[in-house]
Amino acid sequence: RKNARVLTTTRDVVEWPRLDGGNSQYTSAVRVTHVDETPASATAAATNPTFGSDTIPVYTVMARTDISQNLLEDSAFNLLDVLARSFSEAFAIDEDTSFLTGSAGGTATGVLGARATGEDPTPVTGITTVVTGNATTVTADGLINLVYGLDAQYRRNAVLIAARNTHRDIRKLKDGNSDYLWAKGLVAGEPASLLNYPFLEDEGMPAVGANTYPVLFGDWSGYLIVDRVGMTFDRVEDTTTKGTNTVAVFGRRRYGGKLVEPWRFVAMKVSST
Is 177 left (phi over 0), alpha (psi -120 to 50) or beta? Predict the structure, then answer.
């Protein structure tokens, strides 16, 4: 979330404008023409951007916990505060996973959100894929190809992201002299970096395995998050809960997300070809 583009909306769906006609260097069809000092009016060739749109639905996410009224009354600490923190954590983890691998149909569409039922998370349309060169594991060559698979103008703000065990596997990579290839960048309090780019951990990413996509590299400003309602936390008592001496506690929020500029990302696939 902190690296993505975030928009607050008052609607249940957002139509986001999209520029078409670009390529690996240009994000639209606009091009320039070199002209003389006093060009004829028709010298500059007209290149008009083509606009499309991305539809980003807003989804509702909820959590519920039923607590004994006696427990609330007799607890030595504020149990509702503990629940609020637990709800906040669960919502944050869930949205992280949605932004990475959500496949719509009730949740945000993740960067790895293009897949049919039963398939592993797969990059959405427009994302470049590079292979590791090995059918079952990550490789140093594959990581270098991953970084240079992204155009220079998008690498400036790009980050690598993978799950914890993928970090572990990458740190174990060695050269022919059995020396580790990656020295973790923990100098002067700086976070871990790989190939001079920040390397983030998130357990929402797929594990390493044949034909999986365990590492992403990209600029998250190309991902749009739309917030409709922040998390609410409500204590509810009605005739049903009163009759069972319980209190229902609800957490709720509304948001959506979608990759609107896929050219800002590259995905690594564990494959030999």
Answer: alpha
pLDDT tens-digit readout, 100-111: 999 877 899 999
Asked if 18 and 52 count as a contact pair (C-beta separation under 8 A), the reply is yes
Q: Are strands 13-20 and 59-68 parallel, antiparallel or unpaired?
A: unpaired
Query: 131: part of which helix (H) or strand (E)?
Result: strand 128-131
- Residues near 167 by beta carbon (within 8 Å), at least 6 away in sequence: 192, 199, 201
The answer to whether 215 and 196 have CB atoms below 8 angstroms apart is: no
Instruction: Report which of residues 180 and 154 the model is more confident about.
Output: 154
pLDDT score recorded for residue 190: 55
Q: How far apart are CA 77 and CA 82, in angstroms?
A: 9
d(CA 233, CA 34) in angstroms, rounded, equals 60
Which strands form 5-8's sheet, in the order they lie side by side?
A: 5-8, 223-236, 246-259, 59-68
Report CA torsion sign: 103, 223, 166, 153.
positive
Helix (H) or strand (E) holding 51: strand 50-57
Q: State the number of CA atoms in the 13 A half-sphere of 237 facing the CB.
A: 10
pLDDT, tens digit, 9 for 90 and up, residues 37-81? 777 666 666 777 788 899 999 999 999 999 999 999 888 889 999
